[in-house]
Amino acid sequence: MIAVQEMCGRVALVTSKGLSAIIKEHYPKWLLYSVLMLLVGANTINVYADINIMAASMKMLFGLPFALWATVLTLGMVVAQITVPYTLVMGATVIDVFAFMDFSHYGTAAMAAGQHPLEQEVVLLATRRAARPLIRF
Fold first, then answer.
1. Is 112 within the bounds of a domain?
2. Contacts of 84 (CB under 8 A, 6+ apart)
3. Among 15, 17, 23, 16, CA closest to 39
4. Cβ–Cβ < 8 Å for 70, 47
5. How far apart are the C-alpha atoms of 36 and 29, rounded to whole Å?
6. Which one, of 25, 46, 23, 47, lies nearest residue 36 by Cα?
7. Residue 74's pLDDT is what?
8. pLDDT at 52
């Protein structure tokens, strides 16, 4: 999945078009629709896995049933996608907000710092990754 995302990013940088636009221009429709169906399936499985992980984490933290957390998280995401405008207050975009909310790299660095013998290097690498500037297409 990382290789496909990297390839799509590079294609978009060079052509200013997404992968589906490139396939649409250069290949038959049946191939385009096949790739799009695979994409829908992969995204569905990925979102399902993400919701399960978030619901399991919320259950561990707060103790309510897993199904309740999965439902609340799903409804919250659907409502947010429908109601939150792309451009938020003072010109910040949703991408900017998500960039600041990505604390997973800091959490990984903190965990590694307590267990890894090369703690300073691990913390530096993780914080550099989390603080890198966004690439805008």
1. yes
2. 94
3. 23
4. no
5. 10
6. 23
7. 92
8. 92
Contact indicator for 59, 66 with CB cutoff of 8 Å = yes
Rounded to 5°, the CA angle 9-12-16 comes to 160
What residues have CB less than 8 Å from 54, skipping those under 6 apart?
69, 73
pLDDT attached to residue 71:
95
Q: Is residue 105 part of a domain?
A: yes
Paired tokens of 127: 């914080």
Return the structure tokens found at 111.
């965990």
Total tally of structural domains belonging to the chain: 1
Instruction: Give the Cα separation of 121 and 109 in Å (integer).
Output: 10
Place of tokens 């790739």: 35
Question: What are the DSSP calls for 9-57, one per residue?
Answer: HHHHHHHSS-HHHHHHHHS-HHHHHHHHHHHHHHHHHHHHHHHHHHHHH
- Asked if the structure places residue 100 within a domain, the reply is yes
Domain region containing 123: 86-137
The whole-number mean pLDDT for each consecutive block of 10 residues of the chain, a chain of 137 residues, reads 79 84 91 91 89 90 91 89 69 64 60 58 58 50
Is residue 130, in this structure, part of any structural domain at all? yes
